[in-house]
Amino acid sequence: MKYLFESQCRVAENYAPPDTTPEEMVKMWEDQKGRCAVTGRPIELLGRKTHFSHDHETGEVHGFVLHDVNVLEGRMKDFTREEWLAIYDFYRPAPKPPSPEPI
Questions:
Q1: What CATH number has the domain bearing residue 67?
Q2: Closest Cα partner for 70 from 1, 14, 8, 17?
């Protein structure tokens, strides 16, 4: 488990490692049932596209997530809730129109 911590985090000056134990990580993985904590998509524990997400300043743990989710989270960490929702609304697909009634 220590390898997961070290291999997936860039060490910065004020870097805080994940505030968890290997046992807690295993439980988190089991609780997530092999799915991304954000999207719910299937992930592999030791897959290249799986990351153990945590706050690099506080060490607060978020869970196992897809690589793209982790990158997006890092790039958008300073966005407000309103900005996140605006992005969500912008990219959310439009609702499908109702099917026409049979004649």
A1: 3.40.1800
A2: 8
